[in-house]
Design a protein that fits this description.
CATH topology of the largest domain in chain A: OB fold (Dihydrolipoamide Acetyltransferase, E2P)
CATH class of the largest domain in chain A: Mainly Beta
Order of helices and strands of chain A: HEHEEEEEEH
Chains: A alpha+beta (147), B mainly alpha (231), C mainly alpha (244), D mainly alpha (66)
Number of domains of chain B: 1
Shape of chain B: elongated
Strand content of chain A: 25-35%
Strand order of the largest sheet of chain A: 2-4-5-7-6
Mean pLDDT of chain A: 77
Oligomer: heterotetramer
Largest sheet of chain A: 5 strands, mixed, barrel
Distance between the termini of chain A: 82 Å
Number of strands of chain A: 7
Structural class of chain A: alpha+beta
Number of domains of chain A: 2
Low-confidence stretches of chain A: none
Radius of gyration of chain A: 24 Å
Amino acid sequence: MHPKRKQRLIVALVIVFLSSVTIGLITYALRGNINLFYSPSEVAAGEAPIDRQIRVGGMVVEGSVRRASDRLETRFDVTDFVHSVTVTYDGILPDLFAEGEGVVATGKLGPNGVVTASEVLAKHDENYMPPEVAEALEKASARGSMQ
Amino acid sequence: MTEARDIDIFRYCRSQTVRHLMLMVRSPSEVVNPLLFFLLVIVLFPLGLGPDPEQLSILAPGILWVVALLSNLMICMRLFVDDLEDGSLEQLAMARVPLSIAVLPQLLASWLASGLLLSLVSPIFGLMLGLPLEVASVLVVSLLMGTAIMLLLGAVGAALTVGVQRGGILLALLILPLYVPILIAGTRALNEALQGGDPTVALALLGAGVTGGLLLAPLAIAAGLRVSLEL
Amino acid sequence: MWRIIHQFGSPPWVYRFCDKVIPWLMPITIVALLGGSVWGLLFAPTDYKQGDSYRIIYIHVPAAVVALAGYYVMALAGLVSLVWRVKLADTAMRAAAPIGAAYTAIALITGAIWGKPTWGAWWVWDARITSMLILFFLYVGVIALFEAYENKTVAARACAILSLVGTVNIPIIYKSVDWWYSLHQPASIKFTGSSAIDASMLYPLLGMIITFYALFALLMMLNLKQSLTEEYAQSAWLNKRLAA
Amino acid sequence: MYFDSVADALAMSGHGVFVWGAYSISFVIIFFVLLRPVMSIRTLNAGIRQEALRKQSAQVAQQNAS
């Protein structure tokens, strides 16, 4: 083969090789669980690793918030409406933290299935509506569930 | 003319790499200084944070990567400066080999002298910061790939700023934001390894960065050098 | 088709176009900006969860949306200037950078202020905030690189390369930071299906987004006009136009 | 108006500082990016006009002299 053409062929092959490796590695990486964010169902199924920093997100179960009388510690359940997981947190909770609201807790999952959080952040959802609308929606859903 | 055009780019690359390596051997301070900087800054952290090994090992991945990033920045600042001054950069641009390929030998030589060396000695620094020996392999592999991407990206910035007076701070401003994904993937791989997780995902992303960077960065470097040479 | 492109490449034509459009775009934009803010501040209903602090959305979201779009405008101008060597594309790119930086700054500052009552922190290293901060540095980098070169034609080409490198990196940066840590809510305005935002709040928000785009266009034209006046101070067409 | 009184609108049930602060900072930034080119164009134009006048008078003076 003409040396010039041979060079071109090699350069083209190198480009093809590099791009296929790039695509292959990216697809491999995307298939792996790269996010350390777990839903309570995943925690319940034992998918979350124990004793390492993870994040658990979901809704705070209504009526589950218990505050210790002598310390700052708070216990509450976080649910994704299928399973729930108990979270304990020793610190000041953000303003928007409330029962029935979304939170993201960062902490370690103990072998007893309780997450000891080092940080709790209120995660506000993407819904924006006037209070009257929210009320009406609530009423509508209450009526719907009664029927 | 046709004879002159038929230059063997592989032989050219090989000889250029050797030439650049010889230049570095002749002035070893350029090789040793970034390593010394790496060592000095790493020594500063235990002195500033206190010698508690547990606390240090938590911070170690971040410290190692940030310092590797900074010493890489130091190398990038010097990357094309001498070549521009003695005119060999202009020769390179005029050479019969495409500029995007012609810059590769210098990058390879710089990486061998900086990234490779730094990665290979990094387990020692890791030990100083309380990292267990088990994660040494992940540290070395992630740094090998990370320093390569950083050099490729940094060379783009160096090519753009080589003609500018006092381009050092400017280079940092241009390049450090682009280093963020590398920093995240690198520390992630180490943290995964430290906590008994699976570092392969983060390592795969770094690998993709190396190959993707090898594809795209030379084009940007060549374009940047042409701008700096006002060709 | 080619005639239009040719016209966009012609400084006198662009100057005249800016001169014609600015006098009516400026008052409209300012009125829309004030009107939209009053609507969002005083007339839009309060949110059922966040209360009144959500009203920052009418500044924060439009600024963030246009800041990101502005980067692509800048990179596109850079591409045109690199490939077709259109001098006006250089000027457009230079015009876009400070506006983009200002929009990013607004998005960051209002985001921080909104974060305090909602998340309980002025600053969280959330994916979108961090990417926005990096976007800000990219804008500042382009401005600084342009200022660093003596020869402005060379400077524009260097900036074009930098902004193109940034374009490749923005999705990667966003993805990597997202992977690292995320707190932001998902997008509220959806083009398919029903929006998660009530109509009484959506309309002022959409109005503000359009207004911020208009403001971007206005600022682009002002900056373009300024650069053209600077570059062509000696030219006959400009002198004639100013004398008239 | 959604609010009952001006005081309510200013207070915004306790979030007033944040909301009004965010809006005013944004408007200050917008004001400055808007003002910069406008002022710059004004001074540039004045300079160009002055230059043109100077040239014109120089021309007239030359004509008078010749």
